[in-house]
Amino acid sequence: MEALRLRPVLLTAAAALVIAVSGSACSGASRPGAGAPPPAGPTTTTPSSTPPPAPSPSASDAADRAAVLDAYARFWAEQVKAYAQGASAGTEVEKYASDKALGSTRIDLSQKRDQGVVLTGAPKHDPQVEALDAASSPNVATIRDCLDITDWKPVNKATGQPLKAPA
Question: Can you list the alpha helix ranges (DSSP code H) found in 18-98?
């Protein structure tokens, strides 16, 4: 039973390393042809070399994907806590991030601490599991996330005054 509780953490640690954040994935309108009306006139259907859609995921796969997204949400919740106080102490960032993701967070928190900056609010995002290999060791998941930091504002830690975000 203990192994089942650890599985989301292991999945997230790997997922944190392969997060694909893409601005173009944030809005359908940014894709060429998105939102454009279909061409007028008759259309013909031609055979395609595109493979048929993949079968729907199994219940086990769906549960694994849900566990990845749950752990990813917890990763972000802990990051928000860390950035709000300017340090990871008292958070569980280390539980949900490892390797490059954890290193990047530590470096960024250190730089912000040296500058006297904390972040208020929280980012919004829309993570999607694009790939999952729960059979590998460690488990590997690829998550595509559109991150909106509009409401995650830098402020001067001492005064609480808003700061302009770097351009």
Answer: 59-85, 93-96
